[in-house]
Amino acid sequence: MKMHGLGNDFVVIDARARAVEVAPGLARAIADRNRGVGFDQLAVVSESDEADAGLVFYNADGSLSAACGNATRCIARYLMEESGAEAVTLVTERGVLAARNAGNGLTSVNMGAPMTRWNEIPLAREVDVDALPIEGAPVATSMGNPHCTFFVEDAETVDLATRGAEIEHHPLYPERTNVQFAHVIGPDHLRMRVWERGTGVTLASGSSSCATAVAAHRKGLTGRKVTIELDGGTIMIDWRKDGVWMTGPTAHVFDGVWRG
């Protein structure tokens, strides 16, 4: 299945009936937008004893990703429509995530608590995670995957392709990092653009949106509930006691058969 959340697009393989093994080369072949299907991330749905389904994510370069918020929302919507339920649970490397129908075509998922200790993110050494020793003093956060968030005067003017590629491979991040550039529009309202590790520039990113909202609150720029304007549309983030809730639209574009 091809799905997207705010233009952040995915190929989803439903492997609940039959196990599917995805080698890095296969993931890269499907990701090719000229010779394959094209995606920002690939998600494999499996049976689970812990939740309604299990999820494994791959980046466009074939590497594994521990978290993918928009794909989680898309798959949650698919499972709710399939079963008629108003809520589902999904187990990922982050643990069991709760998702629910938010009404008006929107889907919410709890992406869990952010991790802000340097060794949890992880960083290569102990530093101030709220002002990294990188030009621009970005904020480091983990939502199951590492993030580096810059707050700038105007996110629109940033050379995202160049800066994103540089920061993804910064030596402070041993597992590479997702990179965000954001500016404040108004109270609890941000504009953000994103570079995803292993993929590049994307129209949206759920985990990046969560990390940016958390970072903005830690910097005293916003409250705990924010609206974020992405290249692909608008998403709502609410950092609550039980985790970071993300709410936005989803789309199921088409179903297909991969013949290799």
How many beta-strand runs? Answer: 17
Shape: globular
CATH level-two architecture of the largest domain: Roll
Radius of gyration: 17 Å
The total of helices stands at: 4
Structural class: alpha+beta
Strand content: 35-45%
SSE topology string: EEHEEEHEEEEEHEEEHEEEE
The fourth-level CATH homologous superfamily of the largest domain is Diaminopimelate Epimerase, Chain A, domain 1
Distance between the termini: 15 Å
Mean pLDDT: 96
Number of individual domains: 2
Q: Low-confidence runs (pLDDT<50, min 5 residues)? A: none
CATH class of the largest domain: Alpha Beta
Largest sheet composition: 17 strands, mixed
CATH overall fold name of the largest domain: Diaminopimelate Epimerase, Chain A, domain 1
Share in helix: 10-25%
Give me some keywords for this one.
Diaminopimelate Epimerase, Chain A, domain 1; 2 domains; single chain; alpha+beta; 260 residues; 17-stranded mixed sheet
Describe the 3D structure.
By secondary structure, the protein is of the alpha+beta class. It has four helices and 17 strands. The protein has helices at residues 24-31, 69-83, 160-168, 206-218, and strands at 2-5, 8-14, 41-46, 53-59, 64-65, 87-92, 95-103, 106-110, 139-142, 146-151, 178-186, 189-196, 200-202, 225-230, 233-240, 243-249, 251-254. It has a 17-stranded mixed sheet that branches. A hairpin with a 2-residue loop joins strand 1 and strand 2.
